[in-house]
Amino acid sequence: MGALEGLLVVAVEQAVAAPLCTARLAAAGARVIKIERAEGDFARGYDTAAGGESSYFTWLNQGKESVCLDFKDEHGARLLHALLARADVLVQNLSPGALARAGFSTDALQAVNPRLVVCNVSGYGEAEGIAGKRAYDLLVQAESGLIAVSGGPGAPGRIGVSVCDIGTGTTAHAAILEALLGRAISGRGEELFVSLFDVAADWMTVPFVHAEYGSGAPAPAGLRHPSIAPYGAFPCADGRQVLISIQNEREWRRLCVDVLRSPELATDTRYMSNNARVKGREALESGIAAITRTLAADEFRARLDGAGIACGSINGADDLAGHPAFRSAAYRTSAGVELSLPAHPVRRRDTRPAEARSRSGSYRPCCPTRCPTLGEHTASVTAEFLTGDTDSG
Description:
This protein is of the alpha/beta class. The chain has 2 domains: 8-203 and 325-385, Rossmann fold (3-Layer(aba) Sandwich), CATH 3.40.50.10540; 231-313, formyl-coa transferase, domain 3 (2-Layer Sandwich), CATH 3.30.1540. It has helices at residues 17-27, 55-60, 74-86, 98-101, 106-112, 137-144, 163-186, 196-203, 205-213, 249-259, 263-266, 274-279, 281-292, 297-306, 354-360, 378-385, and strands at 8-12, 31-36, 65-68, 89-92, 117-122, 151-152, 155-156, 191-195, 231-235, 241-245, 310-313, 328-332, 338-342. The strands form 4 sheets. It has a 6-stranded parallel beta sheet with strand order 3-2-1-4-5-8, sandwiched between helices. A hairpin with a 2-residue loop joins strand 6 and strand 7 (155-156). The radius of gyration is 26 Å and the shape is elongated. The relative contact order is 0.14.
């Protein structure tokens, strides 16, 4: 049994951010009814990597019900109103104001269903002049400044996953859970607004502080950390690189003495603090690399591990499944093709007394079944929420 068992979520959604939010709600046991246009969520057509279907759609739509409707026509509007009259949560990522213009403003919905929590997901928020701007992940990465601080020196680059979409989905999920807790106290729902740009801007706080109040935002640093040294990748004798991170002076001394076996570095006045090491980064890294190039990567990592120094390999996506920390779970496409994908990031242990566990089963995230075919549940949901009306619209 999931923590959100019995809750009804209506999702007027497409793409990544809102579907990720509702996927997390579904994994916790909520019933999620996904509203799609006749042509479907366009993420269905992003790629064919997942057993012939979209990787994004398969990942983000496990266990949801798909209903095709046009809320601008009479039948579609009646069905959507009927759903929202009984829903606990509405998540939508249409253009700002689109639902309200069609007669689904939050005020109107909460007049019928005061307990409804409404979460509006947008690209740039609702400010005049920007609300209607098309907003996709890469565009927001660019406009928020994320790209300007990413990539390598002289070559700013996109962060390699849809980080603004993913961050917005998880932020919306957290906000909805807060609203549901508030509703348990007040008895009323509330309206939430989460935008990709606001989330990205929040993540840009440290570069923003440097730009506004310091000596300027950090430039793209590749595998270096812009304000900590040594924190980056170093070459080894076998052509591999090992990433290391030094966070304090104790670690710096252990790196010099136990790993690099150059105790003179630990007392070098050029490197007596992190700020000094950042200032002298070029000479520092050149000196460290001269030593690491004499060591095989495995030997270098063994020394780092023995000294308690944080380190890591620079893996590719095809290395992920072999990592000892990797956990997988079964996902299924709409055609039922089973894929082993990264598992839900939250693990739970049932701490209830054994008697309670035996009565109700272990408390775990809802086991996904598969993602739905387009409009698969239109007829059944119509019959359930519009009694006697089985027209699939």
